[in-house]
Amino acid sequence: MHPTAREDTKDHTADTTDTAGACGAPGADTLTGRLEQLPLSAPVDALARADALDSVTGPLRDAVHALPLGTVRDLLRGRWLGHPLHPLLVQVPMGAWLSAGVLDLLPGTERAGRVLVGTGVLAALPAALAGWTDWADTRPEQQRTGVVHAAANSLAVGLYAASFVARLRGRRWRGRALGYAGMTAASVGGMIGGHLAYRQAVGVNKAEPVPHVVPEGWHRLGSVSDFPVGEPSRFLLGEVPLLVVREPDEAGGRVRVLADRCSHQSGALSGGRVADGCVTCPLHGSVFRLADGANVGGPATAPQPVFETRTADDGGLEVRLP
User: Where are the membrane-spanning stretches (predicted)?
Assistant: First the structure.
């Protein structure tokens, strides 16, 4: 029986190995298979590891932070909108330029094409400013990819500006050629921008999964007396870290509980500063109100999940999501 069992095991292992080798292998004869063989994602992934770009990103980041934008900075970040403003603003230049490219294929549309190209160049300026504002408060790996994204878009703006000048001077064919070159550069920039958003999660609400991974109902965190007064504490509820702040008695003595990972870039709020009923993230300075999790300052555009609290008869602290 033993040799038979070994033979069965060997055959089973061989079958498993063969199956594992075939897992995810694209079929070369299908469109999906051909697309998956294109060398697209690997070079863009490599940008995040290109630390040589840090000599560029560092001074640029400092320059963006030094801009005297005042309250305009929060406007550009999109906190009032609930998500970054940059993707919305980008629609205008891209739409104008794409429309100009279509009109350039038709007769008698020179004036309309020129207006659209110029409109796109002007609209690209606030879109770029919003993008730089977001970029300055990202992680180093994201900044490396982002600066290449910005370089491609800057090239596109330059080509379209040259296209506009050529069209004004009556050099129709030169203007069209420059326009299509600009669209190529903008498309490359858009691809890298998509990589930033969906692969590197720039602008994504990092706290969004919390309501989906915390079980319903009340959960005990321990005794209220276990948490220091006026200081941020960290407690792990299952796989979700929580920020726990016990207010002084003169401030009401309530216990405030938020998700600990900042919605902006997953910074630990429990390592931040608590003052005036708010907590400031130590990573990029986003400010959240402890009472309701509202984001009231900094680069975060989404609020923090806030937990309801109650004190049990034995002095235990219990929390649940609303």
Answer: 115-135, 147-166, 178-198
